[in-house]
Amino acid sequence: MRRASAVHLMVFLMLMQNAPAQPLTVDPESIVPLPDKFDMETPARDVPPEIARFQGAWIGTWHDDRHILVVERVRPDGHANVVFAQSDSAFYGMNREWWRGEATVAEGVLTMTGFRTFRYAFDGPDRLYLAATIASGVASGNVTSGALVRADPMRLAAGERPENWPWPGERLFLPHLTLRTPDDARPMMLEATFYPPAGPGPAPLAIITHGSDVGRNQLRSWSFATEAHWLRDNGFAVLVFTRRGRGMSEGVNGEEDFGRDHDGSLVDVSKGVAQAVEDLESAIAYGRKLPGVRPGPVLLSGQSRGGFLAMHYAGLKPDEVMGVVNFVGGWYPYGPVTTPYYANAGHGAAGKVPQLWLYADNDRLYREALIREYHQAFVAAGGKLRFELLHGVPGDGHLLRLFPDRWRPIADEFLASFNTRRP
To answer: Which InterPro entries has this protein been placed in (predicted)?
Structure first.
């Protein structure tokens, strides 16, 4: 018996070694559930073309997570029956689900109302731009966005999904100027999204980058679709890029490798800041070569750590930067180590680079006193800027960028001073 068992075990192990490796799990955020079939109905002849064009299946993203919308039928009066589906989202704390509901089509927009108001409008012949707004409650006015492209509803119902999920803008990968692969065969590549100019080019380039990420969220890609569309509306071509070791960018995220004293206290963040500057320089060099981009200085913008990076880089190389839009910028909420960076940036940029700083007084990471300390250090060193500390931002003020009704009028006024239409 023992010998037979040993033979069976040996055969089993041999089979296991020869069997092709197959993943036993899938990323839960890649799953978008759908019903087994759709109740598709061809639009009647009396349905206006501007309404009928919404009918069909659409696949893409909502707040950078996977999303599917199926418009099963539309009526001449604009009434529509839809299937709404979304993936899990660890960042937003949402579970994957699908549901059937009703919508209306009017003035070129398909709208669903409820806790959130979803608005879908055409952004090309077979492309929808989505803006979702929380209608009431503590986060009222919160706006998240996305983009969808037309798909085959029958293939979706059969379980087929595209290998490359549709994404807002043009997803691309840019070569790093200094980082190379371990075998030195090629440069490391950084993930990016390009939004070409809305009008006839060439247009000045705006670059957006993200904040810090922890845990699973370091795997997340960011499109900044809301901010990118705003900048395109103001005459810019836009490049959104992901710094090393985050999203699909290659390399290792070294921004959290803080220098610490013997007792563990923070004493130095320069290594991570220097790495971020290298990443930004790579994005600027690549972005200037993209079609429709006008040569010359660039506009820099970013959220949190990305806003800090925009401000910091403008101080290092003011002749390379036409302006800064800083959303709640900060590298780490510890003044003794980080405030000197604001003073250095103020001295470096002086009056050469127009800057807009957008903060909220209820930021959970950067308290009002620290924000004012940053501002005072920048100005005292010779920096000039428009500083806006907004009050009453719903929820966490660190998410200010999700409330464009609060910042966009201010930012539109700031950008009006730039001659983006110059030939």
So the answer is: AB_hydrolase_fold, FrsA_esterase, Hydrolase_4
Cα separation, 148 vs 254, whole angstroms: 34
Q: Which long-range contacts (CB under 8 A, 24 or more apart) does 33-38 make?
A: 33/85, 33/96, 33/97, 33/98, 34/68, 34/70, 34/83, 34/85, 34/98, 34/156, 34/157, 35/83, 35/98, 35/100, 35/157, 36/157, 37/157, 38/70, 38/72, 38/83, 38/153, 38/154, 38/157
User: Which one, of 170, 168, 193, lies nearest residue 283 by Cα?
Assistant: 193
pLDDT at 29: 85
Q: What is the pLDDT of residue 24?
A: 61
pLDDT in tens, 190-199: 999 999 999 8
Task: Quote the CA–CA distance of 46 and 52 in Å, as a whole number.
Answer: 10
Task: Tell me the C-alpha distance between 398 and 363, whole Å.
Answer: 5
Which residues, at least 6 apart from 300, have a Cβ–Cβ distance to it below 8 Å? 206, 207, 280, 309, 310, 313, 314, 321, 323, 324, 325
Query: What does the DSSP 8-state code read for residue 320?
Result: G
Say what the pLDDT of residue 153 is.
95
pLDDT of residue 357: 99
Q: Which residue has the tokens 């691309």?
A: 172
- CB burial readout 100-120, b (16+ within 10 A) else e: eeebbbeeebbbbeeebebbb
Q: Are 193 and 209 in contact (CB under 8 A)?
A: no
Taking each helix axis from N to C terminus, what angle separates 225-233 and 404-415, rounded to the nearest 10 degrees? 30
The pLDDT score that the predictor gives to residue 10 is: 52
Q: How far apart are CA 114 and CA 135, in angstroms?
A: 7
d(CA 245, CA 35): 36
* Per-domain boundaries in the chain: 28-157, 170-415
Q: What is the pLDDT of residues 161-216, one digit of tens each?
A: 998 999 999 999 999 999 999 999 999 999 999 999 998 879 999 999 999 988 88
Architecture of domain 28-157: Beta Barrel (2.40)
CA-derived radius of gyration, the chain: 24
Residue type, 369: A
What number does CATH give the domain 170-415? 3.40.50.1820
Between these two residues, 115 and 407, which has the higher pLDDT value?
A: 407
- The model carries a pTM of 0.91
What is the phi-psi region of residue 64: left when phi exceeds 0, alpha when psi lies from -120 to 50, beta otherwise? left
**417 has a pLDDT exceeding 60:** yes
